[in-house]
Amino acid sequence: MKKRILILGGFGFLGKTLTIIFGDDKNYEIFNESRRTNCDVLNSSQLRTVLKEINPDIIIYAAANVGSVNYVTNYAADVMNDNVQMYLNLYKTVLEVNKNIIIINPLANCSYPGLIDIQHEDLWWDGKIHESVESYGMSKKTSFILSECYKRQYGIKTINLMLGGGYGENDYLTEEKTHAMNGIIMRMIKAKRNGDKQFVVWGTGTPIREWFYMPDIGRIIKHIIDNDYYQLPNPMNVGQQHGISITDIVLKVKEILNYDVEIVYDTTKQDGAPIKVLGSKLFKKYFPDFIFTDYEIGINNAIKYYMEKL
Fold first, then answer.
1. From CA 100, how far away is CA 78, in angstroms rounded?
2. Across residues 230-247, what is the average pLDDT?
3. What tens digit of pLDDT does each residue of 174-203 get?
4. Measured between alpha carbons, how far is residue 205 from residues 55, 77, 130, 208, 251 in Å?
């Protein structure tokens, strides 16, 4: 019997990627739902109707109010309120419709304390989230607490996967909403087309981040579902334990675009935490054979995508 998979936020960055990854696999029925299909997770009535109609075995939760560091700072209250409310609606509705639904919930490593360099799972509660991303990071921590409470009282199962900064094809085409690396790629493509002699980096360029190529996350989630691999640490980093600075990303994109431009820094923009790199010990234990896409390949693919779309 085919597994029925509901992707909430199915037309966003992760949702589009998952649809491609699952492709024509005959073992699954994939349902993409979002505001555009009248399934706004902020609307519990709409969500309840969709869950009853589809009756999924698995929900992949890819919905979020999220954007750049500037976005989640400028709209902090909206980001926190919307994301927490969506999670409250999700768990309440799953309980009402079918508590046997398995939820796969991507978390964000901005939810780690801001002063931790190598982010191991046992350090997740050991300090304050960096204020630049507090609204989004805290909403993700709240989702984890909710998942634990609903598991303890009602037996609802959630797989919480901790992710770094995503990049690659099929992200937003607006700089405010896109993820950080994709935003750099978009802005540099536009700058080259405009003939700009300078490219402005937001902040000092020194922060080091772990970046993940979004199709890699799609492959990991599919592997989990293919193998009913639900006894994972909770939460678990999807980690490479390898970071690259903002400046190094900018220079790599400049090189691939063959763009002769001066790099300047707008230090009025926030940097965020200085280092955010996910520890990989648990991930390697449970996924010892997984090979992440090389950064240069992923960046090349993202550049090709945005060259066509912009």
1. 31
2. 94
3. 877 788 899 999 999 999 999 999 999 989
4. 46, 27, 17, 9, 11
Query: Do 100 and 198 have their domain in common?
Result: no
Structure tokens at 122: 């046992």
Cα torsion 265, 269, 275, 276 to 10°: value is -130
Q: What is the pTM of this model?
A: 0.93
Q: Is residue 108 part of a domain?
A: yes
Q: What is the CATH number of the domain that holds 10?
A: 3.40.50.720
Is the domain of 162 the same as that of 248? no
The string of pLDDT tens digits covering residues 48-69 is 999 999 999 999 999 999 887 8
Residues 140 and 160 in one domain: yes
Give the domain range for residue 266.
Answer: 168-208+242-276+294-309
Average pLDDT of the segment spanning 86-112: 97
Number of domains in the chain: 2
Digit-coded pLDDT (tens) for 1-49: 899 999 999 999 999 999 999 998 999 999 999 988 999 999 999 999 9
C-alpha span between 13 and 106 (Å, rounded): 12
**Same-domain check for residues 200 and 188:** yes
